[in-house]
Amino acid sequence: MSTIVSVHAFRGGTGKSNLTANLAGSMVQQGRRVALVDIDIQSPGIHALFGLDQGNRGHTLNDYLYGHCPIEDVAHDVTGRLRQQAAGGTLYLLPSSIAARDIAKVLREGYEVHLLLDGFYALSEALTLDYLLLDTHPGLNEETLLTIGISDLLLLVLRPDKQDFQGTAVTLEVVRKLGMKEVLLVVNKVVPSPDGAYLKQHVQETYNTPVAALLPLSEEMVRMGSEDLFTQIYPDHPYSQGVRDVADLMLGLDKGRDVGKSAAVTT
Amino acid sequence: MIVSVHSYRGGTGKSNLTANLASCVVQQGKRAAVVDTDIQSPGLHVHFGMDGQTTGLTLNDYLYGRCRIEQAAHDVTATLGPAAAKGDALYLIPSSIKAGEITRVLRDGYEVSLLTDGFRALIKTFQLDYLFIDSHPGLNEETLLSLILSDILVLILRPDQQDFQGTAVTVEVARKLKVKRLLLVVNNVLPKLDQASLRQQVQTVYEAPVAGILPVSEEMIALGSAGIFSLAHPDHPYSQGVREIAAQVLSAA
Of the four listed, A31, B15, B22, B168, which is most buried by Cβ atoms within 10 Å? Predict the structure, then answer.
């Protein structure tokens, strides 16, 4: 069974999709099999980072949700977008549809939310995935609560901004009620300053939740405008180093979980 | 007149622009209200110095019949400081930041038609010239409703592939809903970028006027959504840009 990781933020624009895509890339470069699912059905965007648009996207999550294809057919192998590849490492992307009529159909008719869950399990089996990364729509909504509920780990992204500080508190309150234990915070778009260590400590204490990384605000990222994976173009940039730190932490947590599981079996 | 401020993706600076535009319009002697319909992830109230504890009555109280919408309107004219002229008024109708209130909306839903009734009541009671709606990003029911009701749709995008694709979707939906007037705003633009060619490019792609191009600004990031930028930095290019957009909103009347 693969590890399911939800990447979420209360407000939009925290850099959630960019982080999710880059994180997936880093894990694949360490030889993992990873699928990235865009469950931001109201405003999909992550496909742009992999050079997909309406013309060349093929099947989407919407096709699966309305019974037009099995979920495996939605998985696009995008491993070729990585500049360096590791043996065995494979990256799949499952995009949501950007066609206005498809988004409108979801609004008009809704869809069976349990199909998402069934799809995740079918996918991880069919593609023998190590990780399933879910890029969510910002704010609290039904898909988000459901997917967080079945995730092994939640990555919550925030900026050093008052709106995000308030919203993250709300999200954590709800998440804890759902019984979610493993939560990591990532503070993004931090203006580099010597007070970084203080900010990290302050956020950890405020939310009583570990901060996996502080990622810097970067003009290069703005200039790139979601046309590619930042970590592939600027591997030595502090942002890329931070992403690798988060990836390492996630891979480490998973080892811990496996040890826990086998210990439980032997006793 | 109802003005919706919307964007396809989050983080385009929508709430920030809404707060600044409304302030600007009020400084020109108009009466305005800003309504936060981003019920899933409210944030607009932060610009007016409110937090979860001091919010008082909210849009959620109105939607669940606990108060009239006028009671959820907070007079925030004082936020404008000495810039406010006599007779001006700025009201804020915040959404609740309490976890219980947000999850109730998810669980129970609410009558979307109450929003329409509420907007009309606000305009009448407070004799508003302008009602600004700060929406949740993406396409959802509240957004479609606010597009239908709006006289002007201000659609914000960043120079970013995700936004370029998504804005096309929103423009298509707005045209189907026969939105009367569409104004585009490009935000978070690096100063080095050629503004004239960006404006031309965006106007050609979406066949709609660009009302303003706003720069990415470290001062804004440092402010971290506390306060209203154009009041704190009136001479900054961002503030100048907001005034240009406000002028176009005012001239559309």
Answer: B22
Residue type, A186: V
Alpha carbons within 13 angstroms on the beta-carbon side of residue A227 total 9
Asked whether the predicted pLDDT for residue A267 surpasses 70, the reply is no
Buried b (16+ CB within 10 A) or exposed e, B201-223: ebeeebebebbbbbbbbeebbeb
A54, A138, A223 ranked by CB distance to B137: nearest: A138
Residue B208 pLDDT > 50, yes or no? Answer: yes
- Angstroms from B251 CA to nearest CA on chain A: 31
* ipTM for the whole complex: 0.84
Q: What is the dihedral of CA B217, B219, B220, B224, to 10 degrees?
A: 140
Return the number of CB contacts < 8 Å for A and B.
Answer: 136
Cα separation of B26 and B31, whole Å?
6
| A43–B138 CB contact, under 8 Å | yes
